Amino acid sequence: MKNSDFTAEDICLQSVIYIEKILKTQRVPIIVEGSNSNIEKLVEDPVFMFKYKYDSCFIWIDVEQLVLNRRVDMRVDQMVKSGLVDEVRQIFIPDADYTKGIR
User: Fold this and answer.
1) Cβ burial 52-83 (10 Å sphere, 16+ → b, else e)
2) Burial classification of residue 9, based on how many CB atoms lie within 10 Å of its CB (0-12 exposed, 13-18 middle, 19 or more buried)
3) Measured between alpha carbons, how far is 88 from 86 in angstroms, rounded to an integer?
4) What total of structural domains would you count in the chain?
C-alpha cells in the first residue's frame, strides 16, 4: 500500500490494533498524529467505538505554521550538529528498497 493510499480509516484501524497491543502490556498508548481530522475520525466514528472503549486525554498543539516551521528547522539543525548524519550512515543500506518505508 502506498502512503497516498493510506486513508483515515486505515489510520484508525492500525491505531486500534496497536492500542490493544499496548494496553495488554499494561502500558499507556500515546497517539501522535499530524492531522486533527484523523484523530476526530478515530474518536468520533461509531465503527471504532474509541470514546466508549478507552479512557483518554487529548492534548492539541495549535501553532501558526511559520512558527512551527522555524521550530522544526532549529530542531533538525540541532540533530545534525549532534551527529544525525553519521548515525544514519551507520544504518543505511545502499541497495535496500526504501520505497516501502521502514518497519
Assistant:
1) eeeeeeeeeeeeeeeeeeeeeeeeeeeeeeee
2) middle
3) 5
4) 1
Spatial CA neighbour of 43 closest among 56, 59, 62: 56
Helix (H, G, I), strand (E, B) or coil at 41: helix
Closest CA to 75 of 84, 62, 86, 87: 84
CB 76 within 8 A of CB 85: no
**Residue range of the domain that includes 89:** 3-100
Spatial CA neighbour of 39 closest among 64, 20, 11, 17: 11
pLDDT digits (tens, 9 = 90+) for 22-74: 999 999 998 887 677 888 888 888 888 888 888 888 887 788 989 989 999 99
